[in-house]
Amino acid sequence: MIHLFKTQTGRLRIIGFLEGISLLVLLFIAVPLKYWQQDPAFVKFLGPVHGALFLLFIFNTISVGVAQNWKFKETTWKVILACFIPFGTFYVDKKILREIEKG
Q1: Angle at 78 between CA 11 and CA 7, to 5 degrees
Q2: How many domains does the chain have?
Q3: What is the distance between the alpha carbons of residues 28 and 30, in angstroms, rounded to a whole number?
Q4: pTM exceeding the 0.85 threshold for the entire prediction
Q5: What's the distance, CA 13 to chain centroid?
Q6: Is 44 part of any domain?
Q7: Distance CA 65, CA 4 (A)
Q8: Which residues contact residue 83 at a Cβ distance below 8 angstroms, ignoring those fewer than 6 apart?
Q9: pLDDT digits (tens, 9 = 90+) for 32-90
Q10: Domain assignment present for 54
């Protein structure tokens, strides 16, 4: 995993993983706690963390796409779209980003 920090795409993959985990925890743990247990504390904490990771993922996707000359219609928009869909960042990591990093 330490090798991921060495490349732009590797760092994007890490941010995508963290963003994906934060979205899943927010949707499947924090929000149910808020509404079923009337405890919004976890949403209040995790919401801004997820928001920051979301923005970081978007900005890094654009940055990596420009630096590596990705075609927007072929790659960049798919990677950006992934962060709006639960499990999307994991799918894009496996199908697109891992392949780009290989070569």
Answers
A1: 20
A2: 1
A3: 6
A4: yes
A5: 8
A6: yes
A7: 17
A8: 16, 19, 20, 23, 54, 57, 58, 89
A9: 999 999 999 999 999 999 999 999 999 999 999 999 999 998 899 999 999 999 999 99
A10: yes
Which residues span the domain enclosing 21?
Answer: 9-102
Residue 2: inside a domain: no
Owner of token pair 């079923």: 36
* Single-letter amino acid code for the residue at 98: R
Nearest-CA neighbor of 63 among 3, 8, 24, 101?
8
Residue 1 covered by a domain:
no
78, 60, 76: which is closest to 11 by C-alpha?
A: 60
What are the distances in angstroms from CA 101 to CA 32, 36, 46?
Answer: 37, 42, 30
